[in-house]
């Protein structure tokens, strides 16, 4: 398996014709062997970044390296080693699954046996003479994945692969991505605007919002950040005085009926309780509020608007 | 080598595609009309075809085909073949595959030219079939006893193909340029109608959309040289618009 960084972008900037900056200094680093969840709300710049990685958009500013080689001067060599699915499936609907694969089999120069292998892998081996236009969206998506996998790429780029799939389809897609990563060592970049999706399969996460990278690192690091951002909610008989007392030692804030301060553990909660009781304030509730990843995602994105 | 592979992939894409069916059915249209004319009222046609049935048959068949149907089918073929990628949203997969822009551009171009050749060949096949079948029902036409005149038929076909190269190159470029397939078709048909109305203009041999008809007309009045002026212009036009079309695709900022 390859080690190190498989995709690296440095100071990537991109503006569309309307002059709006779609990407602002994007520095992406995808470790080899990872499942890199590329997360961001719709319109954040995910597809633009991925299209730049595939050469579908002309790079305007910044460096783009894939497999350690600059993309501009090694386009064809790089594209031979990666597979992609950008947005909705790209299929010739008047052709069968096998004919669709035959087109790319010729282009990637792989053996005919691979067609049967990938059809089996995505569960489309018995579609026979059925044309792609008669396929369900899930089947089309799986056929697109089969095309992307035909040449056994080292890197797979999937842009919102679960869009439009039913819950079963989403689970199957996730399992397929995990299997490719664990059994074949394929590095996968998978974009999504749904955090829970990424959380369930990614080893590394990159969060993009309004064209800027807000976070990048292993999933655990994101989860540690979540702990750091947890809050302690306090309800007392006199919130105004309690705030005054707590503000001497803590970064406390008052909401409508609660006082909030950063949660630092059980012991610290007990210390806060004793402090308030000593000052003659009745403590009605002390509640550590664990902000889940979803909450964190909203926090990360909203803080930086 | 990559171009050959990319062209084979193009042939698979066009298998059972709209362009294929249009060329197959379109090429049979005029021969079928003549088959009906000969068979429904044979006595009206015996005399005028008595001298050389094939020569008259080819002359009239090609006239009906060249003036509007042939260039129209070529305009539609260019759009339909390119539209396969737009309609199926497959340009992005094509551009993300390890093919050079040259291979992508020229493999599709080869696919279009192959389809035009298929259209011309099938037209001749159906013309021949219409004559032979007519003879089965009405032997008095004596198609089977007359020399087909292969030389003239091949010459007519080759000159027609050369005259169509200008339209192919312009329409291919337009079809690549505009995602909406109505635009290149509308431009092409408008140019075709305009060229028909300009047929008596002294510079008509410089209007690409009139070249197919000019080749028909001038093959009938055999001159000494193989290539007429408009056919030379067609070749020049083909080179010019091929280069322009390729450069346009090569330097496009957004692909797929």
From TrEMBL, chain A:
Segments passing through the bilayer: none
Keyword Transport listed: yes
Residues covered by the ABC transporter domain: 7-235
Entry-linked InterPro entries: AAA+_ATPase, ABC_transporter-like_ATP-bd, ABC_transporter-like_CS, P-loop_NTPase
GO MF, one annotated term: ATP binding
Record's keyword terms, sorted: ATP-binding, Nucleotide-binding, Transport
Family as reported in the entry's similarity comment: Belongs to the ABC transporter superfamily.
Protein name in UniProt: ABC transporter ATP-binding protein
Organism of provenance: Terrimonas ginsenosidimutans
UniProtKB/TrEMBL annotation, chain B:
Membrane-spanning segments: 18-37, 62-82, 112-133, 153-174, 181-201, 232-251
Superkingdom, natural source: Bacteria
Pfam family, one: ABC2_membrane_4
KW Acyltransferase (keyword) present: no
Keywords of this entry: Membrane, Transmembrane, Transmembrane helix
Keyword Coiled coil listed: no
Protein name as annotated: ABC transporter permease
